[in-house]
Write a structure and sequence with these properties.
7 helices; alpha/beta; Rossmann fold; seven-stranded mixed β-sheet; globular
């Protein structure tokens, strides 16, 4: 692994280990997930000026009015998505800088990730290629459309908050599939777990969260 990926000082593997210990104290229990969090260099997904803060438990700006989610939220959403075992096909809405994608990729068979902002998607592709993650398909598009050509999905993870759960994404869930999505207005959002059942959709409110708003269109 090259020096940039290894990190040093505040971006070293020792710093990642401290982050993992904090995640354990916050209730994250999945050992495979924790191993991936420990081995993934979060600092390469942020601007160089912010690298020293990349393992703090906070969201950081990544440009274009977007953020990289705090490590706890990334871990929490991933753990819940995978709580019943490894998934075959996962749809990610909001690739961003690619960090959530990097955490998911070793834990699922295939990811389909959609990003509406072209420069962010390009940066994410470069980061994920550097990490040699090959089970990812990318699309530059409005996230509200999902990726119907590849549906149904066993899991969907959404990194921006709509006011209500988009019907288009519900329609792309496999039977028994799970979606993790923040829902609400800018100052009042809740993380929802949506499960598709034979009789419809079950919604479970998990905790208060803060995500960028879910916007339509593409740039």
């Amino acid at each position: 692994m090259n020096v940039r990926l290894q990190g040093r000082g505040m971006t070293s593997s020792r710093t990642r280990d401290r982050m993992v210990e904090r995640l354990k104290k916050q209730g994250i229990r999945d050992d495979k997930l924790l191993d991936v969090m420990a081995s993934t260099p979060r600092h390469i997904f942020v601007d160089e000026a912010l690298e020293s803060r990349s393992y703090e438990d906070m969201a950081l700006p990544i440009g274009h009015n977007q953020t990289i989610s705090q490590p706890y939220i990334v871990a929490k959403m991933t753990e819940i998505l995978l709580e019943n075992g490894r998934l075959s096909k996962v749809l990610e809405i909001g690739t961003g800088c690619g960090y959530q994608t990097a955490i998911l990729a070793p834990l699922v068979d295939k990811i389909y990730t959609v990003e509406r902002i072209a420069p962010l998607l390009k940066k994410a592709k470069n980061n994920l290629w550097d990490l040699k993650l090959k089970n990812i398909s990318y699309q530059h598009n409005d996230g509200g459309w999902g990726w119907p050509e590849q549906a149904p999905f066993d899991g969907i993870i959404v990194a921006a908050a709509p006011e209500t759960v988009p019907e288009s994404l519900l329609a792309q869930m496999a039977m028994g599939g799970v979606m993790l999505i923040p829902v609400g207005s800018k100052n009042q959002q809740q993380l929802y777990k949506v499960t598709r059942t034979e009789s419809g959709y079950e919604n479970e409110v998990l905790e208060a969260v803060s995500f960028v708003p879910f916007l339509s269109g593409k740039n």
